[in-house]
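Exercise 7 asks you to align residues with tokens for two separate proteins.
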Amino acid sequence: MNFPNVRSKPISLGFLVAGVVIGVSICMFGGDVSKRVQPKQASFQIKNEFKVQPPKGAKTVRMWFAVPQEDAASVIREFRVTADFSIQYFRDDWGNRVGYAEVNAPAGPITIREEFGLTRTEIRNDVDPAKTRPLTDQEHAALFAYLQPSTHVIVNDQIKSLSASIVGGETNPILAARKIYNWTLENVDYWVKDPDHLKASPVGSTEYCLRTKTGNCTDFHSLFASLAMAAGIPTRMVYGSLLKPTLNGVEIDGSYHCWIQFFAPNYGWLPLDVSLANIYGKEFPVTDKNKKLVELTTATGYKGLDPSKVDYYFGNLDERRVTWSAGRDLILQPPQEDGPVNALAKIYVEIDGKQSTDWTREFTYAEATK
């Protein structure tokens, strides 16, 4: 496996995800082929539409928008973008392919629509701690970029102390990551379980999640990433969207979701989703106030407590998701003017050099039938 340069982030998301989807073949290290589980597949037609509303007198509107990342688990078909101006594509400093457009002296609202077909394969791995080992000094150096904090994913003395108390000196990355996963699962609750009293942070924050013991997927995984990096486990966050059966064909913004990849020698990048494990794996009352939110938060639909999902979402990912980008504190191309971008799950807009949130996004999809 090739590692990124010590001082740089990866050059393409194809490399980013390739390490994970080694597990698409299910068992990486042999075993009884007859007992291997066949990964599921699902196909979708997807539309992602952005509308930007520039203020009167705006001189220049610059837009960087997420596009689907193709990898060994995701086949993209007939990708096309419709707009009244030219579109270019660049790679950001994490290697994500990003759409870019610039409009001068806009006369009114700006619309960008992307459409594509997706066939996604479930990622399954036979996660066996005996088949990995502690990282070498050379591997730590090569994966240096994935051990660094970001604006909202912090590694301070409090995080280091907590991580050490959770991991307890364990150097096997799978065993250490599982300890952090279990701790996060047990000590944090997804905000949708009790929307009257819990809420998510607006940015995806380690500090917020640790202090309040709640949050959304980005809060969960920010805290996990901080604790993992403090334990010396290379970690990165992936942003995408869940393709929920309940929203199939519904004209509503399907929003976004994020998950984690961590590095274990002999396996490469392994995925996990502790936020969904928290929904499925911990019993809580379903009420009129949280029922719809809980359902919309899941990937495959919520039918009550399912402890098997706790083990499943450590090393495996369902097939009902699309990947938009990876990483935090992104430097885009052409470079933005208003500082690093926290994450790119939808679109980032600058108007006359300043970040703007005067935009909307509608993400809809229909599952293809065979």
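Second protein for Exercise 7:
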Amino acid sequence: MNDTTAPRAVLADDERLMREQLRARLAEVWPELQIVAEAKNGIEAVELVREHRPEVVLLDIRMPGLTGVEAAKQIAQLPPPEDDEDPWLPEIVFITAYDQYAVEAFEQGVADYVLKPAERDRLAVTVQRIQKRLAARSNPEAGADAPPGPNMQQLLHQLSARLNPGQAPQYLQWIQATVGQAIQMIPVDEVLFFISDEKYTRVQTAQVEALIRKPIKELVDELDPRLFWQIHRSTLVAVKAIAGVTRDFRGRQIVAVKGHPEKLEVSRSYTGLFKGM
């Protein structure tokens, strides 16, 4: 976000009165923020975010079509604009009437929440946090809060589990992949990283390089976010395989992988994963 450009937001809530109240409260505590679009459900929210590319997205957790959590997952995997090689990730604020979702799940600080009905003082705290993270995007060296990254993935999985308490997540244990002319079953715990191009995703272990037709945006939901971090829109790396992080001549973070010579680039949207580098 350019410092001279007013931040923009998309607001999604299936209750019209809630949208009107939140818009009015935001005008009081963050008059520079432009609400560029409003959605009545999760499907509309994803499409409006795709169209407007706002810096902030406010999502009601419970909406028809897609829940706020499901919409956030899709938003996190939207492709970048044509003139930007990095993934584009807005700041996410969840709107909820349920206190239980706002205790442990938001402690990581990668997203914030607003309890219904929105109170001015609490909303002001949320705005300050979002402004701080937006400033950190413009100046990653400033040491402010990190932008969304794998911790966001973990948060979304936690919220999904809370919304569907009877449905424990079933993460992938095996990858069925093509190795040469053969199909091979690769244990997920042997995978060092996944890298996608437009057509295939490369599965890399210490001994095997294989191909699958599953994109990163699907793997993100199917792999345990505690074990695999997304560091680029096209790259997932096993946390236990990260040997270290350095910077190249452009200032980009580069991940060294245990047991493999390849270096993996960290895109700007995920630099907060490795604070202090």
